Amino acid sequence: MNHYTPENFSLTQSVGFSINKARNLLITEMDTALKDLDITSQQMGILLSVHWNVATTPFELSRLLGIDTGLMTRMLDKLEARGLLERSRSIEDRRVVNLELTKEGNAIAVQLPSIAPVVLNRRLKRFTKAEFEEFRRLLNKFLAE
User: Fold this and answer.
1) The pTM is what?
2) What backbone phi and psi angles, to 5 degrees, belong to 139?
3) 65: CB partners within 8 A, 6+ apart
4) What is d(CA 56, CA 58) in angstroms, rounded to the nearest whole number?
5) Could you give the CA distance from residue 60 to residue 65 in angstroms, rounded to a whole number?
6) Which class does domain 15-143 fall in?
7) Residue 145 pLDDT exceeds 90
8) Three-class SS of residue 115?
9) Where are the alpha helices (DSSP H) in 1-145?
10) Do 85 and 75 form a contact (C-beta atoms < 8 A)?
């Protein structure tokens, strides 16, 4: 079913506009909350993914976080330069780069689960539990291919 046509399309009333605006708002608020740790919300995603072993290679991180490989490389360069993670070649396959957090990277990663929920809960405070669950369901449906 087509929800938009050239006749009814309006930039500010489109789902894409609202999702982008919500993303930008959330990134700004999360970046502010992470300022004392001197990391960004995108770097938070990398640190938590590696810390929780959800993704341990640049390729896996790029797919999981929806970040192109060029930007991912630059972000990993910065985190490595800060001493938060280390890259090493796989012994089994030299084409694969494995990522591991340093002691300092892990120290930051363990603090993140107490910071991110504060930002998210502040945005979701007007949602009932049922609305929150429906919102998550609909977002997952939107993201499904």
Assistant:
1) 0.89
2) -65, -45
3) 42, 45, 46, 49, 55, 72
4) 7
5) 9
6) mainly alpha
7) no
8) coil
9) 15-33, 41-51, 58-65, 69-81, 103-109, 116-124, 129-143
10) no
Do the Cβ atoms of 38 and 81 come closer than 8 Å? Answer: no
The torsion angle over the Cα atoms of residues 133, 137, 139 and 141, rounded to 10 degrees, is 180
Give residue-wise pLDDT tens across range 9-48. Answer: 999 999 999 999 999 999 999 999 999 999 999 999 999 9
How far is Cα 102 from Cα 53, in angstroms, rounded to an integer?
A: 14
In which region does residue 87 sit, left (phi positive, over 0), alpha (psi from -120 to 50) or beta (all else)? beta
Task: Tally the residues of the chain.
Answer: 145
Backbone φ and ψ for 13, nearest 5 degrees, come out as -105, 5
